[in-house]
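Fresh eyes needed here. I'd like your take on this protein's tokenised backbone:
***
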Amino acid sequence: MIRKITNALTRRAVLMGGVVMAIGMAGIGAVSAQDAATRIVIGTTADVVNYNPLVGNSRSDTWVTNLMYPRLMQMTPAGSKDPYVALDWGYSEDGLSAWMEIRDDMTWSDGTPFTADDIVFTITAVTTEKIGVTAGLIPSFVSATAVSPTRVEFVLSRPDSTFLTNFGFWMPIVPKHAFPEIGSVGTFANDSNWVSAGPFLLTEVERGQRYLLKAVENYPLVETGRANIDEVEFRVFPDVNAQALALRAGDLDIIANALPAPIARTLQGQPNITVAQAPSLGWAHMLYNLQRAPLDNVLVRRALAHAVDYDAIRGIAMQGLAESTNSSVISPVLSYWADPEAKEYAFDPELSKQLLTEAGYTDADGDGFFDNLSLSLLYEQSAADIANWAQIVKDSSAQAGIRIELVGLERNTYLARAREQKDFDIYAGTWAVMEEPAAYLGLAFRTGAFINYASVSDPQLEAYINEAQAATSPEAARVPVQAAAKLIQDQVYDNVLYYQTFQFAYNSERWENFVIQPSDLLSLVNPLSLASVTSKN
């Protein structure tokens, strides 16, 4: 039995920032000490690979570690950042220093205060050791100092208007007292004896089966000061189809993975199941490995771009739940930044053939395919949407005389081959959140950058990115941002297919008061949502 109390979570959540919508705000439950433990079961399709939140890059890694290691800011639907643990921040007039004020009521689960020292430790370790994605997002960082328990001051190498928001949202903060000395943070497994300043603490792991987290007693970012449920269990399923069956059977409460359109449609209208939506701030795309011939030839990349039936992908594979980005790495959702002149690559198999002929390819045996041109397309086999449109890419490319072999892999192998080994011809995937062009262009397209899977190295592109990142106002950044996006499109460094509205399903007979945030990375399973959700039983 759950004891109900009334409160103003909606208002407080908006003040804390980043909330898209709250579902079923009928009342917030507080768990009585005499009540039975409440547990919500969440489905995922992959194990946790890294318990170190600074290293982890998969969705399962993020979903679990986000519940223990807080970020300083929250994300809004339009991609801006609002206060959360951080209350206020700003820059000096010359742009060469910055500051941040944080809450004074946060503690780690072992009773140690959460202070500015933890922030200084985390950002120094990340930048010194060049750990993970965030290191590439804050190239202007020089040093940080905790001038009080709640205030951090930063020195920058140059003006960088994206520094604070990138650092504030993208870098989870880890406990200085529970992590090793700087120099070893990036190799720290963090696979036991966890310490949390989030709403939950990981307590049990059964690899391949489940991950159990229990509520901590102090989480001041919700009105009740504690999560309204006692336990969160992530349960591993082979794919989203298996998750959908478990949800229908009542063995699962939330499907964390974004639902493929066909599965979402089968769940809509089912008794006790609600399909919720979260806006996308990222995109689906294909990257061509520039380290490999013939993909280092722009004519071949353009031929591949014109061999894709984009309308069929959005209309058939995505069943209309996707929109064109005009083949641009700046989604029209980011209306301030998007270039109104951008046009999608036309699906034109004959133009593809002309480009390949110009590149020196022939069909000597007359079988309808160009000789010595066979490429593999790497994708995650549990990502049903991508698996569906990968087949469309193969079929439409065949009309242009291009053979494509589909290679579907489990997620961790897929990520290793793409990110670490660069062992692919064509990479099919998604970026979950791409909300600040001046920042993410550097992360994805600067030489050697962390998610530059395609191995792009273009001095002119880097000059545009540098100019955008050094800009002190959005107006000054917009011109180089749009120039960079146009160059990426012209050179086919990234073939962006669509952005979508993500769909997620949960058992609405049992649960209410989720707080949805944008992207498939945050969605229903963000910390504020799982701290706010209440049982209806």
